[in-house]
Amino acid sequence: MIALLPGDGIGPEVVAEARRVLETVCGDALAFEEGAVGYSAYEAGGHPLPDATLDLARRADAILFGAVGDPRGDALPRGQRPEQAILGLRKHLGLFANLRPARLYPELADASALRPEVARRIDLVIVRELNGDVYFGEKGMRTTAAGRREGYDIMSYDEDQVAAIARVGFETARARGRRLCSIDKANVLETSQLWRDVVIEVAAGYPDVQLSHMLVDNAAMQLVRDPGQFDVIVTGNLFGDILSDQASMCAGSIGMLPSASLDASQKGLYEPIHGSAPDIAGQGKANPLATILSAAMLLRYSLGLSDEADRIERAVATALSHGARTPDIGGTTTTSAMGEAVLAAL
Ligand code: NAD
Ligand code: IPM
Ligand code: MN
Question: What pTM value is reported for the model?
Fold first, then answer.
């Protein structure tokens, strides 16, 4: 059974298209159950991640997630904000390894923020740690001795967390171009120094993979200067969040990038890297391809259906080559018409 968690904003619009694609490719072989998450779940029952949804996610073979977030949620106490739904699912289910592939579909060379000859070279995977870092440390608001307000968020990683994500990075690189770049801020942060030390220790088990290290500020610059230099990137929760949005624009649009969040046994939650996009919600403008490509990753990683996953990825390329373009990639195709273009290609 696949749990569908559409969420807020454009989440339901893009998940609906991905569901149609899954139904077309797999027919009756897949069963779906839908659950509430995010602001809509909060409105209905007072919590962004209801127990029933968490239970559904635990029972599912895999989870397809849309997006959460609503401007009305921004004033709520942090524990009730819509974003807690996705953070809670990642933590409760032990989904520590987030794979965010970014590559340019040749048809979209003009949609990239980069010159086509630079953009064309982008084909990388960001392996982002999801269960630690400044996201999950102690945080709060307090008053200083001088009576001033102070906000704080503790950044930390323990060595087991770093070793676990480093192994995913090395394994991912081993299955691709055998080059791994670890991104940190070891020149300033102790958290990053431990990160770098542990990545180097883990590297001893992967002599066939070429390891390099880069400071995150330089990495942000290199991603737009020459994204083709990267094969696999491994990095922490916060840096990975920021760099993956940046990589998406090098590859054409944030509406194009899928992701897989995996636990230690390949159980996974699959979601586009983008958010609920309240600015375009309900207007038929959302690009559903990131979610459709996330559904392909779901078939490949959690259900072992790689032929079906390949079919979906080829159908996306065909739809693009036939000229289907939502506004974010320079056209006027609607969300559902983009879904139909993929279905037609299937
Ligand atoms: P966002 O990703 O929602 O949107 C950023 C920009 O990209 C907007 O202009 C939006 O219109 C555009 N965009 C995003 N997805 C698109 C798509 N599929 N097609 C076309 N255009 C698209 O980021 P934001 O505006 O910073 O955040 C909005 C809300 O989403 C916030 O509440 C945030 O917390 C939440 N958020 C949730 C997730 C998630 O659920 N995993 C991820 C990121 C942000
Ligand atoms: C993402 C999002 C989330 C994150 C938010 C909504 C908690 O930006 O999945 O990239 O920061 O991880
Ligand atoms: Mn993000």
Answer: 0.97
